[in-house]
Amino acid sequence: MLSTETCDLKYLGRAVTTDKFRMLLRVQFGGEQKYIKLSELTFDTFLKEVCLKFNIPEGRQLDMKVYDQSDTEVDSEVFEEIVKESPGAFRIMLGSEGLGASQSSPCSVTSEDTVILNFSMCDDEEASPVGASQPKKPCRMNYEAKALIGKILTSRPGGEHIMQEYGKTKSLTDATRRQMINILAAEMTETHGTSPPKNVRVMYAQGIVALFPYLEDPFSQHGYEHYYDPESGSGYLAWRLKTIQRKSSEERGGSLVGQAMVDNPS
């Protein structure tokens, strides 16, 4: 049973803090994404809050079916345990259609009556349009970003330690996070130069939270902005890139001074 004291729950790929049974969940309905608050962790309360937030007629609550990431139906008996222990996306279907033979990816939207909870591989503007059978290319790009970050970390010194620490604790210490940022920024600048394009920076940030979903920020718009925010140009990756750029500029300046002294000895 949950205590009425403040506690931490690992919910759908990230830690969610609850205060006296208050829980903040992110819900996507169709092309719209909102936060909802639960006063108690029960299946019935969850369905009622989803109906209220998205103006779904409460009479349709009986038609709502909840599925976990493996497309297994979740009911009231197991809802609490699934929420606390299972990372990934939950879907709610309205009506009697069920998931059917066509299994959609976690990041595709196949119906106006599909609700995707919390972590999704797609951002809102990148999700497939309603009725689309296949995700758009930007959606697949998130999978590519995840694979890219995994490849970099497993091929660089120190990367395996980062993967192992996250696997054990579902988090990273500040020192390990800095090590990860240093590795990724180094790879980025070696491949794309000291001023990588914005889309490359976004891809790396998306890849981090796709590979390590517990590191996603539940209070930002897309979850990856604390690694790189394209609107403000801030974030861990951006700050590391600025350091690399500054050092590179200083090295070039020192090299020019040295060359000038060789060309014009006093």
Number of domains: 2
Distance linking N and C termini? 81 Å
The total beta strand count reads 8
Q: Beta-sheet strand percentage? A: 5-15%
Biggest sheet: strands, sense, closure? Answer: 6 strands, antiparallel
Low-confidence stretches: 1-20, 96-141
The helix content is: 40-55%
User: Mean pLDDT score, rounded?
Assistant: 71
The helix tally amounts to 7
Question: What order do the SSEs take from the amino end to the carboxyl end, as H and E?
Answer: EEEEHEEHEEHHHHH
Question: Rg to the nearest angstrom?
Answer: 22 Å
Physical arrangement of strands within the biggest beta sheet: 4-3-8-7-5-6
Which secondary structure elements does this structure contain, and how are they paired or packed?
Blueprint (H helix, E strand, L loop, with lengths): L6 E5 L2 E5 L4 E7 L2 E7 L4 H11 L11 E3 L5 E2 L4 H7 L4 E4 L20 E4 L19 H19 L3 H11 L4 H19 L5 H14 L24 H28 L3
Antiparallel strand pairs: 1-2, 3-4, 3-8, 5-6, 5-7, 7-8
Helix pairs in contact: 3-4, 3-6, 4-5, 5-7
Would you write up a description of this structure?
With 266 residues, the chain is α+β, with helices and mostly antiparallel strands. It folds into 2 domains: 7-128; 139-253, no CATH class. Helix content is 41%, strand content 14%. The strands form 2 sheets. The protein has a 6-stranded antiparallel sheet with strand order 4-3-8-7-5-6, covered by helices on one side. Strands 1-2 form a two-stranded antiparallel sheet. Helix 3 (137-155) crosses helix 4 (159-169) and helix 4 packs across helix 5 (174-192). The protein is elongated, with a radius of gyration of 22 Å. The relative contact order is 0.09. Mean pLDDT is 71; it is low at 1-20 and 96-141.
